[in-house]
Write a structure and sequence with these properties.
Strands 1, 5, 6, 7, 8, 9 and 10 form a seven-stranded antiparallel sheet that branches. By secondary structure, the chain is α+β, with helices and mostly antiparallel strands.
Length: 700
């Protein structure tokens, strides 16, 4: 998967509304792009806070300072398309004393680099606009390198000109493959390149400062970041229980804004049309507002365009990496809405009529987040909502329906309240430790369930995937360490660190200006067996085939992530799971014949192949053939699975789409893994009873 500095800046806000009035930014003269006294003061304070409170001890030496500088260059020019090698050589001369400069708050080199960067952007944009006036030959065998990790700084203007010729050709061809006419393509790309230069000219000193300081903090550890006053406002809005917006978490990936995840109950997820990995290439306001090309925009600027008040309309133009449609660029319309706590609440359903035990019912509880209505709790509301309270009620309802086992679905659950992860574990164990927390000073605290008794003691499985993170990993690890249930699916995200917000003004008494805040990593989670959930995540007892393409996903893909480590185990007594090898064999035999899993595995492989491409062809016929081959393979597997299930596939390229039928399709696909998890639970029940495993294989 292509990695860049911008990729690790996950925009945590959920694209929510704000009452802030956004004035049109003005071009900033170069004469204003020099560090100020307040920024010098901020750096000194940040140094002290990091040194004292960060979980990873700071060693601000020359080697570390050089990594900071390289990270800063990567933040400005991730594709190495603007600076030349002689620029880098000059910068490196000026950065030789960077460690000393950082200690004293001297930011001259950061601003010097940016002033040169702005001039180089102007030069490249002028060249790109000139190229747009000419013609392109898409019948030649020519390739464009898309992976910045494999690029070197170019030595001459001639080499940069050739790079930009291929870049403009690739931009042009991408839009042509999306069925855009050439005249519209030229107009759109002209606006894109003009917009790039315009936005760079609107960078203020505070923007440069934030970019550089984040290069500093992210060299230390990827979840530590500086938040300017404006960014702090966005973060505060995102943490409210009731949100307005589209309900999506975005990240920057080179010049694209990419959907990291969608929020349960939000318009994005409810639409069923926005998926993880989709690139947002255009944003339009209202039903007929002009569609603005946002490729190359800063993440914050794209967010400003997408968010808005409840009831207003926003249109997004998406470029999907996923195969399966003939036109991977599509436009969707969303109505911004309030995302309430109950929209993210746990839900349940029953799975039955499974081949290995048609008369057995298995209950499924979907938990999209670990939520707790702290506001209602603090107000004295005795019936405040929480994950644990809701799941307890769902367990009672499932038991009343006669289920023989329960599956907890944590796929896509990015975490939430630690208290809820602890109390939820308590529903399935009698008493005992759940997670250990080690802070920056080496102090270890154990979070434990102290309430005797369990709400459910029967057969249990927990399904996780690559996006199950933080509190999800704590719960899954605790269930696994206690031997309370089976963990099934993919290795989890691997985020085992704890962050807190620190107001920098606290460390400068009498300071009247807002110095911003640090989102600081100050502790690490450890399993009760002593191992951390950091980096490795939770490895399932039974893995699904899609787990083979996860080497560069989640925490494992982030630069400077904290390593896996371990401490002394907590005091606990674990049950021993039996028959694991037999359960794995039986599941693997079913999956090998399951058309649904074949579809999921092929899709995972296709997406992995796309993500790991280092270059793309600029021959139009070859690009079309590659796209069509992938799309046809995916479509064939998908239709085969749906027809076996008795579902008529929906033509998603038709002018009129039956949304109800499309939802039936999506639900069937979403339950492929859950139904296999239910079959595994049934296998475990039968093996415990000593019943023979079914001899016949059922084709699906």
């Amino acid at each position: 998967m292509k990695q860049s500095f911008n990729r690790v800046f996950f925009f945590a806000a959920l694209l929510v509304a704000t009452t802030t009035s956004w004035a049109t930014p003005r071009p900033v003269p170069l004469s204003e792009l020099f560090p100020g006294a307040g920024q010098t003061k901020s750096v000194v304070v940040i140094n002290k806070v990091l040194e004292r409170y960060h979980y990873r001890k700071v060693n601000l030496d020359d080697e570390f300072a050089q990594q900071v500088f390289e990270k800063y260059l990567e933040a400005l020019d991730p594709s190495r398309a603007f600076f030349q090698a002689h620029d880098i050589e000059r910068f490196e001369t000026g950065s030789r004393r960077l460690a000393e400069q950082l200690r004293s708050g001297d930011l001259a080199i950061a601003f010097d680099v940016f002033r040169v960067y702005r001039m180089r952007v102007d030069e490249r944009v002028a060249h790109a606009l000139q190229l747009l006036k000419g013609q392109f030959d898409f019948n030649r065998t020519l390739f464009y390198e898309v992976d910045p990790k494999h690029k070197k700084w170019l030595n001459s203007e001639a080499e940069l000109n050739e790079l930009w010729r291929k870049r403009v050709m690739n931009d042009f061809l991408t839009l042509r493959l999306a069925s855009k006419p050439d005249a519209e393509i030229r107009e759109r790309l002209q606006k894109r390149y003009d917009g790039l230069a315009r936005r760079i000219h609107q960078f203020k000193g505070d923007d440069i400062f934030q970019t550089f300081i984040n290069a500093y903090t992210q060299t230390l550890e990827p979840h530590t970041s500086f938040m300017s006053p404006d960014t702090s406002v966005n973060f505060d809005i995102s943490m409210k229980l009731s949100l307005e917006g589209i309900g999506a978490v975005l990240r920057g990936d080179n010049e694209y804004t990419v959907v990291q995840s969608t929020v349960a109950g939000g318009p994005a997820r409810e639409s069923g049309q926005i998926h993880s990995g989709d690139q947002i290439v255009g944003v339009g306001q209202g039903l007929d507002g002009a569609m603005e090309d946002v490729v190359g925009w800063r993440l914050e600027d794209v967010v400003d365009k997408i968010r808005g008040p409840k009831g207003s309309v926003v249109r997004l133009q998406l470029l999907s990496k996923a195969p399966g449609t003939s036109n991977r660029t599509r436009e969707i319309t969303l109505v911004r809405n309030e995302i309430k706590l109950e929209d993210q609440a746990a839900k349940s359903f029953v799975v039955d009529q499974l081949a290995n035990a048609p008369d057995t019912k298995i209950g499924v509880i979907e938990i999209p987040a670990f939520y707790r209505d702290f506001e209602g709790e603090n107000a004295g509301n005795q019936n405040f909502r929480s994950t644990t309270r809701d799941v307890r009620q769902l367990i009672m309802e499932l038991r009343a329906q006669g289920v023989s086992g329960i599956v907890i679905d944590l796929r896509g659950n990015g975490g939430g309240s630690l208290a809820e992860a602890t109390s939820l574990t308590g529903l399935f164990i009698d008493t005992g430790p759940v997670v250990q927390v080690k802070d920056a000073f080496g102090k270890i605290e154990v979070e434990a369930d102290t309430d005797p008794g369990a709400a459910y003691t029967g057969p249990l499985a927990v399904v996780v995937d690559r996006d199950s993170a933080s509190a999800s990993e704590i719960f899954a690890a605790a269930i696994q360490d206690h031997g309370r249930g089976l963990i099934i699916g993919e290795p989890t995200f691997g985020k085992g660190t704890v962050q807190t917000l620190i107001d920098l003004n606290r460390y400068v008494p009498g300071e009247h200006g807002d110095l911003g805040r640090l989102r600081l990593t100050m502790a690490e989670f450890f399993r009760i067996n002593g191992g951390s959930t950091q980096l490795h995540g939770v490895t399932p007892d039974i893995e699904f085939p899609s787990a083979s393409n996860l080497n560069e996903h989640g925490e494992r893909s982030l630069d400077h992530a904290l390593p896996w480590t371990q401490i002394k185990p907590a005091d606990y007594h674990a049950s021993k799971l039996t028959n694991l090898d037999q359960l794995r064999r039986q599941s693997a035999a079913r999956i090998a014949q399951d058309s649904g899993f074949k579809m999921l595995t092929e899709r995972s492989k296709m997406l992995h192949d796309i993500d790991t491409e280092t270059e793309v062809s600029l021959r139009e016929s070859q690009r079309r053939a590659e796209n069509q081959q992938r799309e046809q393979a995916f479509k064939t597997d998908r239709e085969r699975y749906l027809r076996v299930r008795g579902i008529t596939p929906v033509d998603e390229n038709a002018e009129q789409i039956d949304e109800d039928a499309l939802e039936v399709e999506r639900k069937a696909i979403a339950r492929i893994e859950i139904e296999e998890a239910a079959r595994i639970v049934i296998d475990s029940i039968l093996l415990e009873r000593g019943a023979p495993a079914p001899q016949q294989a059922v084709m699906r």
